[in-house]
Design a protein that fits this description.
This protein has 86 residues and is an all-alpha fold. It folds into 2 domains: 37 residues, no CATH class; 41 residues. 58% of the residues lie in helices and 0% in strands. The protein has 4 helices and no strands. The model has no long low-confidence stretch (mean pLDDT 74).
Length: 86
């Protein structure tokens, strides 16, 4: 959306004075940072750029691997021992 489209949508006369509709049309909990053409967001990635993020990601991978390997071992054990004669 361009600046003029935003002003037309949230004001009645195209000026920078918001109407009563401006609050109801904005999403809940939204904060207007600026009315401009673009807004740059920070390019940091918490999972990969921070040491704590790396540790959390490693722990999640380890936990996922242990769950998957346990389920696989139980399935193989069930199939292997259910077909063997006793």
């Amino acid at each position: 959306m361009t600046k003029t489209e935003i002003l037309k949508r949230y004001t009645t006369d195209g000026r920078k004075t918001p109407t009563a509709f401006a609050r109801t049309l904005a999403p809940s909990g939204a904060v207007v940072v600026a009315i401009s053409e673009s807004y740059e967001t920070p390019t940091t990635n918490w999972w990969l750029d921070d040491v704590v993020g790396n540790v959390v990601l490693a722990l999640l991978c380890l936990a996922g691997f242990s769950v998957v390997s346990t389920v696989l071992a139980v399935c193989v054990d069930f199939v292997w021992f259910s077909r063997r004669p006793t």
